[in-house]
Specification:
Elements lengths: L1 E7 L2 E5 L14 E7 L3 H8 L6 H8 L6 E5 L2 E12 L4 E11 L3 E6 L4 H12 L2 H4 L2 H14 L1 H21 L6 H29 L8 H67 L11 H26 L4
Parallel strand pairs: 3-7
Antiparallel strand pairs: 1-2, 1-3, 4-5, 5-6, 6-7
């Protein structure tokens, strides 16, 4: 589906097609063509009237690509990722948005899941000044909205890590190694997306490309600063989760040692008692202790109590208990 937001003669226009006359930079028309889930006809639009390079179009139609920026004659091709953390599914869902930036136009290609594009499209349909600022400023507005969406997801991930850190010490049995590894996978996904995206926005902020003027480059610097902080947090999260995994394994090992310690003490104490009761259970004549037949039972209990107490004293004196 194609939606075109154009500014012609100072008036905003919403259309479902691109007028070939608009492609002329001297036409005075500034427009944004938003392409959602492109079809074959849309592909012909990209390679035909716009004349985009076939390699760039092929990348735009692919589902997932690493963030990057490439300069072609007449236009700039940028791939950036939106991020949407779905805690119910315990994974970071990323979706790339492809941008074609020309002298007087911006073309976006995505699968329709981008919240940032929808938000800017709503503003663009109501406020003509958004297009009046130029396509590069429109690109910045979308990218800035994408990066703003990162913060709630990163904060949610931070809270999740803090809860896991508390569980390691307060309720280690509730936390599983699988949960920590899934958390580590989420952080790796965040780092894998933000680090190259930081580099792409950094290039846009350094005015490496003629399509980005100085005013817009200053705006991209602010976006770059946000991405730098998020990338640093992703690295910090990775270190925290590594420590979390080590602490969990250590707590599990200590808990297992305590269980084995108790079981070993019980076995050690009851071993001589078992020998004693087995001895008195043999079908042979055993010398009786004073008191006759009825007293032998109580003598055996006394010996068992003395043995258990002696073993307990021995274990405690050696600081094994």
């Amino acid at each position: 589906m194609l939606t075109v937001y154009a500014l012609t003669n100072g008036q905003p226009v919403i259309a479902d097609h691109v007028d070939p006359a608009w492609l002329d930079a001297e036409s005075g028309v500034v427009f944004w063509a938003d392409l959602v889930a492109p079809t074959r006809d849309d592909v012909s639009l990209l390679t035909g009237p716009f004349g985009f390079h076939e390699l760039a179009v092929e990348d735009a139609l692919s589902e997932t690509h690493q963030p990057k920026v490439e300069s072609y004659p007449g236009f700039l091709y940028v791939i950036l990722h939106g991020i949407d953390f779905e805690q119910s599914e315990h994974q970071f869902a990323t979706h790339d948005v492809d941008f074609f930036l020309g002298a007087n136009y911006l073309v976006t290609v995505h699968d329709g899941r981008s919240r940032s594009v929808r938000r800017v499209a709503d503003v663009c349909a109501k406020s003509p000044h958004v297009l009046r600022e130029g396509p590069a400023a429109l690109l910045h507005r979308i990218v800035d909205a994408m990066v703003d969406n990162y913060r709630p997801e990163v904060d949610e991930l931070d809270e999740w890590i803090e809860e896991s850190e508390k569980e390691v010490f307060e309720a280690p049995t509730k936390l599983q190694v699988r949960d920590i590894l899934e958390l580590k996978r989420d952080v790796s996904s965040l780092r894998r997306v933000t680090v190259p995206q930081r580099d792409v926005v950094g290039r846009l902020a350094r005015r490496e490309f003629s399509e980005i003027d100085q005013t817009v480059a200053y705006r991209f610097r602010d976006v770059h600063d946000h991405l730098v902080r998020i990338a640093d947090e992703a690295i910090m999260f990775n270190d925290r989760i590594t420590g979390l995994l080590e602490a969990h394994l250590s707590a599990t090992s200590n808990r297992l040692n305590q269980v084995m310690k108790v079981l070993t003490i019980i076995t050690t104490i009851f071993a001589p008692l078992t020998v004693l009761t087995s001895l008195y259970g043999m079908n042979v004549t055993i010398p009786h202790l004073p008191g006759g037949e009825p007293a032998q039972f109580w003598w055996v209990l006394v010996f068992m109590a003395v043995l258990a107490g002696g073993m307990g004293w021995l274990l405690r004196s050696n600081r094994w208990l």
